[in-house]
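Hi everyone,

Forwarding the result from last night's run.
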Amino acid sequence: MTRPAYASSLFALALAGSLVGCHTPSSKLPLDELTKQEQDKQGGEQAEVLEPLPVERPADMLPRTVPVMAEAVRPAEILRWFQPLKTIPEFEAARAEAATMLGGDLLDPQQWAQLGIDVNGPAGFGILDLRSQAMFAYVSTSDARRLEDTVRRLAQATGSQDRIAATDIGKARLLRLDDEASLILREGVAMMVFVDRPDEAPHDFAAMVATIDPREALGRDDGFSWARSRMREVDDGLVFVAPRVLIDAIQAEGNYDSDYGVRYAQEQLDEARRRGAPQQEIQEMEARLTEEQRWAAERQRERQSEQQLVREIFGPIDAVVLSADLRDDGVDGQGQVRMPGTALLRRLFVAGDSESPLMQGLDEAPLFVLDGRIDLSVFVTLVDMMAKADGESIEEVNQKIQSETGVDVLRDLIPTLRGDGGMAVTLSKPLDKAKLGKIEDNLGASGHVGLSKPDAMRSLLDGLVQRKQLAGALTKAKRGDGWVLKIPEWREMQLAIVGDRLLVSSDPGFIARVRDAKPGAQAQALAAAEHPLRGPMPTPAARLYQRWVWLALLQSNEPWEQRPEDMLYFMNEHSDLTPDEAAKVPRSKEFKKKFKELEKATAAVNAFNRKRSQRQFERALKMTEQFGDFGMQLEVLGDGLGVHGSWRYAKGFSPIEVGINGFLMGSMDDDWTEYERLNQESYRIQDELRMIRMTDLDAAAAKQKGTSK
């Protein structure tokens, strides 16, 4: 939802890059030919051609085949996220230089007018064509002539002013910057078109943008018009996706040159026959060709199965729109997926009819929550489709599970389920930087599963207790009628059936609170409408929540520690002694004394690595805490699915600033000179140990030779 933030920057970077590296003007569609076509429209048989409609929005200049685009409705609002970049010295120097070349600062909305850009008009970017890697980026213009002057000033600064070819086409002005990039100025819009593979482009996209009639453009497309109508007044931008167009493009690209191996093997065989290669060589090449053909056919079947699966799941989706309101304390977003009621994804989700016990019963703060309800029959159909795409069937998958667990999922488990359920990963106590290898001990988990047949589930669990496959991992609880699941190297999970739900938790109090309808310590916070997990939907079909602090867990591993004994790989290496003979030679007093020095040096290296890991964890924890938390709810609509998302963070927070600081933090506070010194000291001692050991083995070998005489 924040992609529109890069629109103006992308526009400027593409423009600058094109001018710096421009080549001769494109011959895809010469400018004089474009001008001649425009003149031909003025009379003769072309007189009956309808005049193009006025351009009302940038999408009126784009073809309907655009698969993805993002647009900032109010660029000035989004520019606020980028202001902290000014505090970075390296960026500030580059920004000042760019501002001098352009004649204005792109990060200052007050200076956009100096460049001919309208800060109050839409700006955006997107994809024109995947195969040719054609992209576009646009801004609104307040003065097209001034913007062209800005372009030419930049071209002069880069020494490429003589390579720009320009012409007027109706109400558009087209500037060819090189074979790959063009700038189109048309009715209040400046659009950069960049084609990385112009020879593979199905159209001259620059000419299309300059001449397309808005009647035929994306702006009048039904899906795009629907997407625009979904936006709220407060939204600062949108992302539009046409899934069918995108799927077609991706699958077409995936099919390209898929038989290269077969063609190459055939070419090699033909060449061998032409030069009269020996029969054995030809037979080997024929066998290779046959094998390549077999592999190609297998890959083709797999690809077709995967493509069919994607089309069946996502093909019915007509359009997707996401929009967002960027606020000082977070981002409030919403979106819709338009599809018919018969679509599989539409049928998969079921509107909730009751409050999740996770919203009331949690005592521990949630890190991650997934909750909702699905139609189990549709889910089984989806799993069957996925299994078939992988060359199996759902029955085969079910048999594998049954052989490992003794449970017939299709006939014994699924009939006991209602379709609703959820799970939460919680933080049971603060993260401790001194125990990086045991961070998981600070985590907890709770969950619930709705039951249509509680007694059948009870019998199923009692039966699992007796299964040898579980090796005692699931046992009956010592008190009550519940069960205990022992998870290796972690915690015990309590299980109990309460009413028509199976409850699971590492916190025994969770089950008791749900049974007694008592609120947990988190209930009040989760009841607030502004909490991202709660959202505006009382009983959505699905909820998703996460605190970004979970990313810090990726930095929580204990560092690898060196062991002095592992460094003694040379202990039994000698030219005259076998490894077994050398192993019997005891360590000398001198060796043992030097080995203690190695232990001390290794401990210093390990201590350095441990402190560095702790600092990295602290930095990651601080950064992710600033990112706050995010929640999303999904609801079933008459024409598809709706989603609401909320990203909550501290007022004044800038994701751009924190993201850059996170990128740079890897080198902060790490004294690599000291690290190198410690390692060199360890290497020096290892070399001395090697020499001492060699002397000891030489003496042992000499003694052995003397004894043998």
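Confidence is low (pLDDT under 50) at residues 1-10, 16-28, 41-47.

Cheers,
N.
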